[in-house]
C-alpha cells in the first residue's frame, strides 16, 4: 500500500486514504513501529463522509484509537488538500467532533473541538482538548518521564509540563498511546495554553514551542481554540503490510 509520512512540528504520522472503515489497530502498530515499520507517533486514515469533507480514524502508535489529535488534524488537512480529497478550508469528523481546518501552503490552522476543564489534581489540572491532558505550570526542566508515566496511568491522560518565558509558552508532553515524550503534542499545547491563560501568564494568543523547538501559534477566539503551524510531507512510500 502507498502511505505518506508527515511531520507536524515533530509529532509524526503515517497517513493514507481508504473507502472502507474497519478496525485498523493492528496495521497502526505495524506502520508506526520505528524498527520494522515506517515509524510514527500515530496513524491517520482518511475516509469518505456524506456530510463533511471526510471522516478520519486516528490511532496512536500502540494501536489505541484516540478521540482527537491536534497535530494530526493539521497533517491530515494538508494531506487531504494536496490529494484533492478536500478544499483549502475543510471540515472533517473525528470521534471528538467536527474539526475545521485551513491550509495555506505548508501552514495549517485547525479549530479544535470545544474544550472542558475536568478537575484539579493537586498542582495539576485535567483538561479535555479533544483528548484528556494533565497540565502543570512549572520550570520546563521539572518534566520527569517516570512521574509523567505514573500520572498517565493514574488518570488515563496525556501529561504536560508548561512554562511561560519572555511571553512565550514552552511545553513538554508525555503522550498516552505513544507511551513516551513526543516532540510535540497539539492538544497538549492547547491545554497548557488554557492553564497558563487561567493563571494570567498569557493573553488570548501565544507563541508556543514544544520539545522540537518548532514554533506554533495558539489563540482563543469566541471561546474556541485555534492552533497553527507548519506541516511537512517528509516522504511517500509503498509498504507491504501482509
Ligand atoms: N496520544 C493522544 C492522541 C494524540 C494527541 C497528540 N498527538 C496531539 O497532537 O494532540 C491520546 O491518546 O490522547
TrEMBL record:
Substrate binds at residues 11, 60, 70-71, 158, 175-176, 186-187. The record marks 133, 175 as: Could be important to modulate the pK values of the two catalytic cysteine residues. It catalyses: (2S,6S)-2,6-diaminopimelate = meso-2,6-diaminopimelate. One of its GO terms (molecular function) is diaminopimelate epimerase activity. Pathway: Amino-acid biosynthesis; L-lysine biosynthesis via DAP pathway; DL-2,6-diaminopimelate from LL-2,6-diaminopimelate: step 1/1. The active site is at 69 (proton donor), 69, 185 (proton acceptor). The keyword Transmembrane helix does not apply. InterPro entries: DAP_epimerase_AS, DAP_epimerase_DapF. HAMAP family: DAP_epimerase (MF_00197). This is Diaminopimelate epimerase. It comes from Nautilia profundicola (strain ATCC BAA-1463 / DSM 18972 / AmH).
Amino acid at each position: 500500500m502507498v502511505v505518506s509520512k508527515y511531520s507536524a512540528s515533530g509529532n509524526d504520522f503515517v497517513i493514507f486514504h481508504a473507502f472502507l472503515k474497519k478496525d485498523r489497530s493492528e496495521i497502526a502498530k505495524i506502520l508506526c513501529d520505528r524498527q520494522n515499520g515506517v515509524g510514527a507517533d500515530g496513524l491517520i486514515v482518511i475516509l469518505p463522509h456524506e456530510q463533511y469533507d471526510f471522516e478520519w480514524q486516528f490511532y496512536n502508535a500502540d494501536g489505541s484509537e484516540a478521540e482527537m489529535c491536534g497535530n494530526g488534524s493539521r497533517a491530515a488537512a494538508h494531506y487531504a488538500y494536496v490529494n484533492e480529497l478536500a478544499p483549502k478550508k475543510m471540515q472533517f469528523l473525528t470521534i471528538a467532533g467536527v474539526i475545521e481546518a485551513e491550509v495555506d501552503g505548508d501552514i495549517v490552522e485547525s479549530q479544535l473541538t470545544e474544550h472542558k476543564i475536568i478537575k484539579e489534581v493537586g498542582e495539576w489540572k485535567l483538561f479535555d482538548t479533544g483528548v484528556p491532558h494533565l497540565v502543570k505550570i512549572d520550570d520546563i526542566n521539572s518534566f520527569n518521564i517516570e512521574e509523567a508515566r505514573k500520572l498517565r496511568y493514574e488518570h488515563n491522560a496525556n501529561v504536560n509540563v508548561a512554562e511561560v518565558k519572555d511571553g512565550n509558552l514552552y511545553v513538554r508532553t508525555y503522550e498516552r498511546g505513544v507511551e513516551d515524550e513526543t516532540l510535540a503534542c497539539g492538544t497538549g499545547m492547547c491545554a497548557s495554553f488554557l492553564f497558563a491563560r487561567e493563571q494570567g501568564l498569557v493573553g488570548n494568543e501565544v507563541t508556543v514551542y514544544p520539545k522540537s523547538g518548532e514554533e506554533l501559534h495558539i489563540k482563543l477566539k469566541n471561546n474556541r481554540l485555534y492552533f497553527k503551524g507548519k506541516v511537512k510531507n517528509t516522504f511517500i512510500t509503498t509498504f507491504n503490510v501482509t
